[in-house]
Amino acid sequence: MMNRCLLAVGVVFISILQLVFGKGQVSLDSHNFDKILSKFHTTLVKFDAAFPFGPKHEAFLVVAETSKHKPDFLVAEVGVKDYGDRDNEDLVKRFKLDSKQFPVYLLFVQGNEKPYSYHGSSDEDYSADKIISFVRSKDTGIWIGAPGCLQDFDRLAKQFIQSACPHQRKGLLKSSEDLWDNVQTQSARRSAEVYVKTMRKLLELGGAAARSATMPPGHGGNEEKSTNENVKTDSNKDKGSESEYLSREKSRITGLLREKMSDQKKEDLKARLNILDSFALYVRKDGENSVRDEL
Fold it and tell me: Domain ERp29 N-terminal spans what residues (predicted)?
């Protein structure tokens, strides 16, 4: 009962803030920063010059729209002035930010001592897709779906990538196929198909690695290697193959998007790109997530 009351209060609080500021985003300042952040599990804050405009800010507004129906996720901005009363410069100093790099995004997750930081080096790095991908790459416990992504399938994609057991992966593929059968809308069915086909391809890559591990040792002194060593090595190659496949496929689709095509085709390709990200976000390299903080 208490959790329901808190959730209801959170929904009302967000609704009031959105009525005041619109577009799903909230303006923060030195006086209300900590008070408002304390009410949300996850908060994405954009630090920027006061009264921002242009493509980067428009992309931010698109990101803000994703939070409108998520009571535990807030998207906010801090406008910084380097003139007059120098509003909010104390927050810039507090988080050791460089105004020359604005806009800078900080992602606050309750329970974490420090926020995650993101800033880009080109205009493309500030697209709504890139910012959403940054948020999705962090273990916030909140689902932030990109266009074309489906929550249940994203959960299965994460479990699939994080599993090293072929038998478990086949079970997750079966669960995805069953979900696909029950999807109602045409657009969701197209998305479900991409999830399932991606899992099938990754299983195929894993199967190739497993077959390689059972091959007789080659010449040149490799006979002394244990079977366990071979399996471990090929398991690493398997992860590398997954990363390479996903990266290659994303690059291919990005290239296609530069070509002239119908709006519907472009939306379908963007959805496919986002779904591939749902897998790629959890492919680990040398113990680190494939999406890193931009510091």
Answer: 22-147
